[in-house]
Write a structure and sequence with these properties.
By secondary structure, this protein is α/β, with parallel strands linked by helices. The protein has helices at residues 90-99, 120-134, 155-162, 197-205, 212-217, 240-245, 269-277, 287-290, 293-305, 319-331, 345-358, 367-376, 403-406, and strands spanning 38-40, 44-48, 58-61, 68-69, 84-85, 103-109, 138-143, 176-178, 208-210, 258-262, 283-285, 310-312, 336-341, 388-392. The chain has 2 domains: 35-217, HAD superfamily/HAD-like (Rossmann fold); 240-406, P-loop containing nucleotide triphosphate hydrolases (Rossmann fold). It contains 13 helices and 14 strands. Helix 9 (293-305) packs parallel to helix 10 (319-331). The longest helix has 15 residues, at 120-134. The chain starts with 37 loop residues before the first strand and ends in a 7-residue tail after the last helix. It comes from Trichobilharzia regenti (Nasal bird schistosome).
Length: 413
């Protein structure tokens, strides 16, 4: 499994780490870093061989598990010298593509650099040595943060197209990408792929994807693979009319009532409350604003006492959390409805990733929180005391800012 990423550059910490030697520039190197061949952005390291020429045809490659593997036989390299080409066909096959006019570009996630598993000088030396071994003019881009440049997001490719190809337009129909993170199940001696991010990266760009086995050995592309359960691209083809037809009719209440929202974090609850329910006069009670369920319950009673209909904008994933508010409704003798968000577990995680990418001030919600919510979820029933349970579909505003980004695969699996 590839190392997990966070939102900003981190210094090495004393947290539990792999039993490997950190890549260190104090170790003797076969050659010094040629800084003239390197560029650095906020989250990208870019290497360009001096003889590398622009081309409309790109052969993009992942690095680890696609071009190289640890020569020690370990899962992770012990130092910056611990590598070898993955097989004897690599140089020959790359030469074939090069002779056909392809530009060879390594495009790889290397979050381990900012997690302290290797330092930048040693990593640069490693890449220079790999390029020397390939004996072909190569360009290479490495994403070192959890941002728009990390696959399956297309930031590295966008940089290549906009700044790294000397203005030559890239022909997507002639270009391809190969990587070992292809979403394949275990087969024979090969373990299950750690993710699907390389296949999704190619899909997001709109180019052909091939596995390393297909690329290096011309094997038929017949292996099974599993795509993520949530497909964001499908939202591009749903019309506003189709989406809105699924939305239940919600009118201004003619009597006091209590509504409980039920749904994962980032499922669209708050947006629905502010855009649909608040204009109808509902008082919104949110734990995000108040901090505890006790304060939410107290605020709910206060609002009802003021003759205000209330919507509780919390996750309310289990019977116990919902019962607190249903009891209040019974005390005040008012009906209580449940608005159940249709947004799936996977879709909500996609939404959370989108928030993190587009809102720098957003406080990220960890995958552990999502897992906890999934484990505690109990489907609402009228037996709990609900007058009605309405299902609320997720409706994407295709005209919203960053809609094109939203409809790409944002998660690695």
């Amino acid at each position: 499994m590839k190392r997990q990423a966070t939102d900003q550059v981190e210094k090495p910490t004393k947290t539990k780490m792999r039993q490997t030697t950190l890549f260190s520039s104090d170790n003797p190197a076969s050659q010094p870093v040629n800084e003239e061949l390197w560029e650095t952005t906020t989250s990208l390291l870019v290497y360009t061989h001096p003889k590398c020429q622009p081309s409309s045809k790109i052969l993009g490659l992942d690095l680890d598990g696609t071009v190289i593997v640890p020569s020690s036989g370990k899962v992770f390299p012990k130092d910056y010298t611990d590598w070898k080409l993955i097989n004897n066909n690599v140089v020959l096959k790359l030469k074939e593509y090069f002779d056909k006019g392809y530009k060879i570009v390594l495009l790889s996630n290397q979050r381990g650099i900012t997690k302290g598993y290797q330092d930048i000088p040693s990593f640069k030396i490693k890449i220079q040595n790999i390029v020397d071994k390939l004996n072909i003019p190569v360009q290479a881009m490495f994403s070192i943060l959890e941002d728009k440049n990390r696959k399956p997001l297309t930031g590295m490719w966008d940089y290549l197209a906009e700044k790294g190809n000397s203005g030559v337009p890239i022909d997507l129909s002639e270009s391809l990408y190969s990587g070992d993170a292809a979403g394949r199940p275990a087969s024979g001696n090969r373990k299950k792929d750690h993710s699907c991010c390389d296949r999704l990266f190619a899909l997001n760009i709109g180019i052909r994807f091939v596995t390393p086995e297909v690329l290096w050995f011309d094997q038929p592309d017949t292996e099974k693979f599993e795509m993520p359960k949530f497909n964001p691209t499908e939202l591009l083809w749903s019309t506003d009319l189709e989406a809105n037809s699924k939305l239940p009719l919600i009118e201004k209440p003619n009597q006091l009532e209590l509504i409980l929202m039920v749904g994962y974090p980032a499922s669209g609850k708050s947006h629905f409350c502010s855009q649909v329910l608040a204009p109808l006069g509902y008082e919104i009670i949110s734990r995000d604003a108040l901090g505890t369920w006790q304060k939410c319950a107290h605020a709910t009673e206060q609002a009802i006492a003021k003759k205000l209909s209330v919507v509780v904008d919390n996750t309310n994933m289990d019977v116990e959390s919902r019962s607190r508010y249903i009891k209040i409704a019974k005390i005040w003798d008012i009906p209580v409805r449940c608005f159940l968000l249709e947004t799936s577990y996977e879709h909500a995680q996609h939404n959370e990733k989108f928030r993190a990418l587009t809102n720098p001030s957003h406080k990220p919600i960890s995958s552990m929180v999502f897992s906890m919510m999934k484990s505690k979820y109990q489907e609402p029933t009228v037996q709990e005391g609900f007058h009605e349970i309405l299902t609320i579909p997720f409706i994407l505003d295709i005209n919203m800012q960053h809609a094109a980004l939203y409809c790409k695969y944002l998660l690695e699996k």
